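To the wet lab folks,

You asked to see what we're planning to order before we commit. Fair enough. Below is the target structure as tokens, and below that is the sequence we designed to fit it. If anything looks off to you, flag it before the synthesis order goes out.
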């Protein structure tokens, strides 16, 4: 059941739902009709598309490739005065928790995988592939900017929480449980290969849906 104290506006509905990232069940408290709304989206990574579908199946509202606007002062605060707008792989809104998750999404299927010791660290200055997860100042600046912009647009409420997470198709040399424990301690979202596999099986067990992710799940898990 959806928590009816969570925050919804017409803009929230347009921003997530009309941008073609519709969860399977729209809460009854969002009675908005489709009005004019446009969005520019780049072609998404195949793995990110799969993860987006699985998140939607978990009743998240999903946005891919979200660019965050930073002022010159904010860029200077992360020591990157000429940096382009940072881009988040997936932003997922948990309706029941009224929480927005900024997610690093890495497939790494034909590589050694995501190493624990490159994620479970804190850096003074952001660097590397997982800087959203490893640099506190960077996280704070990006989340503050996103909160400010989305509040101004009426997309979230004053009490909406912003959190972080990692979804990875492969973890380095059996370190998945260490990742699970670390993210649980941080109270962040983590999906590793085992959980992704479980969710693909559940997706395959659903009724027929004419989309590539669901059909692929059915083919791959067919006995």
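Sequence we intend to order:
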């Amino acid at each position: 059941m959806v928590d009816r104290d969570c925050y919804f506006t017409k803009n929230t509905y347009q921003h997530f739902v009309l941008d073609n990232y519709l969860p399977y069940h729209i809460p009854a408290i969002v009675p908005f009709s489709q009005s004019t709304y446009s969005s520019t989206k780049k072609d998404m990574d195949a793995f990110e598309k799969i993860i987006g579908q699985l998140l939607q199946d978990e009743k998240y509202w999903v946005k891919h490739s979200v660019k965050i606007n930073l002022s010159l002062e904010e860029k200077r605060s992360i020591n990157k005065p000429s940096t382009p707008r940072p881009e988040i792989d997936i932003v997922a809104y948990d309706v029941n928790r009224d929480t927005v998750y900024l997610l690093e999404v890495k497939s790494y299927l034909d590589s050694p995988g995501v190493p624990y010791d490159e994620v479970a660290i804190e850096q003074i200055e952001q660097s590397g592939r997982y800087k959203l997860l490893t640099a506190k100042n960077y996280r704070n600046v990006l989340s503050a900017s996103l909160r400010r912009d989305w509040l101004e647009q009426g997309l979230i409420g004053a009490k909406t929480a912003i959190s972080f997470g990692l979804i990875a198709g492969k973890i380095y040399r059996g370190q998945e449980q260490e990742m699970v424990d670390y993210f649980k301690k941080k109270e962040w979202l983590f999906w590793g290969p085992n959980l992704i596999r479980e969710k693909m099986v559940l997706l395959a067990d659903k009724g027929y849906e004419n989309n590539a992710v669901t059909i692929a799940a059915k083919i791959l898990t067919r006995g």
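Structural context that might help your review: Residues 10-221 form a domain with the Trna Endonuclease; Chain: A, domain 1 fold (CATH 3.40.1350.10). The radius of gyration is 18 Å.

Thanks,
Computational group
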